[in-house]
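subagent[fold] <- orchestrator: predict structure for attached chain, return tokens only, no commentary.
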Amino acid sequence: MSALVVAANRLPVEISATGEATASPGGLASALSTVAVVGSTWVGWAGPGAGRLAPLPFGDTHLHPIALSPGEEARYYQGFANSVLWPLFHGRLRREEMNRSWWRTYRIVNERFATAIARTAPPNATVWVHDYHLLLVPKLLRARRPDVRVGLFLHIPFPNAQLFSMLPWRQEVLAGMLGSDLIGFQVPEDATNFISTVQRLSEVHADGQRLRVGARTVEVDAFPISVDFSRWDALGNNAARAAVVLRAEMDVASILLGIDRLDYTKGITQRLQAFEELLDEGRIDTEHCAFVQVAVPSRTDVPAYQDEREEVEAIVERINSRHRRPNGHGPVRYIESSFDDTGLAAWYRAADALVVTSLADGMNLVAKEFVAARGDGDGVVVLSEFAGAAQDFPEALIINPYDIEAIKSALLTALSMPDGERRSRMESMRATVRRHDVHHWAQHFLERLGAVPGERHRLS
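subagent[fold] -> orchestrator:
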């Protein structure tokens, strides 16, 4: 493969105030660890407070930090990316603001990324751009470096044409994305939505999953992302003893588990409402069943996320005050904190069922982490039909997260499922993740990108 440049909003490391870089666990870094060639380059933001940093080596990789001022962080990241594109693409339009200042800063930051990539990419390099923060980069980069091959992967859903058309800057965003040679989505429906949107809003011709943009071919397809199976399998096995301790602390026969960023797209209140109604109806006993909800703080400066936090905390307080156990504990253990992967693995192994009720979700890697961590062969997954993972896990209990009765039924089924059935379902899901892990995902995308025909000026 030609030299690889990865561009993402964040670098795959945490950089301290002294400039020391330590690897971020999992995520994109793990995804590309087996395919990134020696000397590959990562371009990304170093995080809040990092300031301007010079390029630095990290193992066999070169890191090229992008600086953002506090104002740019507010307008580009918190503003346009996470208060316009994120809710729009997830079909959650509350508090939507089509702020022109945010858009201008988003464009400026994308230009900064494109300039940095153009300066650092070797001749004829392969550039892999990631996610909704950088949708303008492919076109901007192509104008600067027509010799490079550009792939774009969107980690979140892509909306239908009618919803996307609400964006005042829809033409510019589409044109930016179409600067790619290959555009990847999580599931086929997202790829279909994109092609339909392009046909509705432009004169680009579509031939199946190929788009003709001038003399170039842009291919569009689904590449379901996954996790590092071997790593999570080992983490789960190593956490077996810690899981026993957690179960002893909970002192119940059954544990339902939710692990999410504290985000309004995750359907946390829906699952808690279903649990509450089962308690109210006497169909679940607080002496025998508890719900553990881990909510990782996220985008705390965005008003919609503040509202979600208040709603979740209110329902947790209501449940625990009305259904307090004789020992004084409530049936919901609410943990508003982040865990390292070792801590997550312990909860994955301790739980009887993982509950995922996303209202919209590109993939939901928590479900795949849970499955990979269950080397004991046990555990049930309750999974929203609107999470991309539902297409990979037909063995899960698939539910409509807007249907509270369906969630209640699935929770009862999960708690009463016979041992043999639980293990059979888990065995099939583990085989899926083992076969299609994160390394398979990365290799598949880059192989397809390398095979896309294109009109470009090669540099010698």
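orchestrator: received. Logging for downstream: The chain is about 45% helix and 20% strand. The chain has a mean pLDDT of 92.
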